[in-house]
Amino acid sequence: MDYNQLKLSQPDKKKRGFVSCMSRMVAFDDWALLLFAVETFKFYGGDLMVSYVNCALKQVIDLMKLYEKDGILMIKPGYQSYKPKSLSYDPDSEVEFAHQITNAHECLYEFKESTDFIALIDWDDVLMGPKIGQQFMSYKFGFNQLSKQFPFAGVFSIQRKETYLTKPFEKNTPYNLEVAVQRMNFYDKALQNKIVVRPKRVAGTWIHTANLLESNNFEEISINQSDATIFHVQNLISGGKADKSIIKHRMIGKVDKFINGSILQENLMAFFTRHRFNFVSS
Questions:
Q1: N or C: which end of the chain has fewer CB within 10 A?
Q2: Which three-class secondary structure state does DSSP give residue 204?
Q3: pLDDT bracket for residue 107 (50, 70, 90)
């Protein structure tokens, strides 16, 4: 009989306000999306993004390692099942979404006791926080306010909006986050919600909902777009994923109402300068 070894470790005990548990990367090559997602997370005052990587383009990994040095990103290996030599099939192909749920639970349990709020999202799900007047508020502030409004909430269900650039960046043109935000529109195409949880109140989760709460007293709350929304970003670079069916849907808003692209670009350039990183996007 062939056995695998179990490894035990202590959960992360550092106190944090807001953590994003990102879905695993498999053949991930979208460096433009990575930059937009991480810089938006920083803009809204997030504490840590946790990334599970099965495989990714070297240029993507190089950028991720710089963010890891800054403490805003933690890179972990994506879970893969043990495969005994006697097994005639791939066990990873037998599970839903190639262990996306496994990685989500690993992250949930890792930060369950030390973090106030955890987002369970994909890399193309870019979470926007609240805005009061002209002032952008942090994720933690927004979800603290929602927790006061809904004291029994264990899960916040957040609307997702299909989001496209009116003109994607060509591969031979410089990439700029301010310009990207200016070109982003979102549409009325229906998408399933994603969630932010109060981890101490959640025992188990699925991709679009928490399926096991710690008490029957806790509940899942659907929140308004003004409190938080998720933009499902598709086509930053020309030649990337594009949904032709979007022409059937109505454009309902612009992303630049939710985030300051100028600050994103300034922060990105400061990030590259600090690390003496020669970023060539074209």
A1: N
A2: strand
A3: very high
